[in-house]
Amino acid sequence: MKINSAEFVISNQEVKKCPTNKLPEYAFIGRSNVGKSSLINMLTDRKNLAKTSGRPGKTQLINHFIINKNWYLVDLPGYGYARVSKSSKAKFQKFITNYFEKRQQLVSAFVLVDVRHDPQPIDTEFMEYLGENGIPFGIIFTKADKLKPNALERNVENYKNALLEGIWEEVPPYFVTSASNKTGRDELLAYIDGINQT
Ligand code: GTP
Ligand code: MG
């Protein structure tokens, strides 16, 4: 898919203030600092469309971007970021779960995981939460540029095996990506395009 336009639309904490038209949307979720905002910039080929930072906790709101005027990418805050106060953390989680449970336009979530790490409960539990709520999702392995090919392959296999040993009967669609060198961009855009065409 060619990206002809990519524009910021709105940021907020309330699902009822999200865009009201029925265009399909895809949401990026994962731990703070995993690379959600960087991935959105990589996919859209825009350097600063979504704000990124080396410090976790950069993205704090639900951010809608409209792509080619006919679908949305949604950048979400990271989960598992301990440096916010407890009450703001609870609120955080609440508006994220509200988004996932109420947003009718959501076609698929993408759960981002850093490909360097073993499966973490916070991520696999979030996938289980999506499964329990009937929300389709794919897995995006990020920061592939940080590993040599052998280690990359080993970690991806390890992750898939862990899912199959857990509650999953099959491995969800998954993508190996790097925002630094655009690995996985074509595959991910083709996947989204395929869904949008149906
Ligand atoms: P929050 O908004 O805080 O939840 O973080 P985020 O998941 O949006 O992460 P962000 O895109 O801001 O990236 C976090 C850090 O990781 C930044 O320093 C990025 O430059 C770096 N980063 C993101 N993706 C990649 C990647 O593919 N490769 C490398 N080497 N660094 C990356
Ligand atoms: Mg972010």
TrEMBL record:
Function recorded in the entry: Necessary for normal cell division and for the maintenance of normal septation.
Organism, as annotated: Nonlabens agnitus
Lineage, highest ranks first: Bacteria, Pseudomonadati, Bacteroidota, Flavobacteriia, Flavobacteriales
GO MF annotations in UniProt: GTP binding; metal ion binding
Domain EngB-type G: residue ranges: 22-198
Name of the protein: Probable GTP-binding protein EngB
GO-annotated biological processes: division septum assembly
Sequence similarity: Belongs to the TRAFAC class TrmE-Era-EngA-EngB-Septin-like GTPase superfamily. EngB GTPase family.
HAMAP family assigned to the protein according to its UniProt record, in alphabetical order: GTPase_EngB
Annotated CDD domains: YihA_EngB
Cofactor(s) it depends on: Mg(2+)
PROSITE patterns linked: G_ENGB
Top-rank taxon, per record: Bacteria
Keyword field: Cell cycle, Cell division, GTP-binding, Magnesium, Metal-binding, Nucleotide-binding, Septation
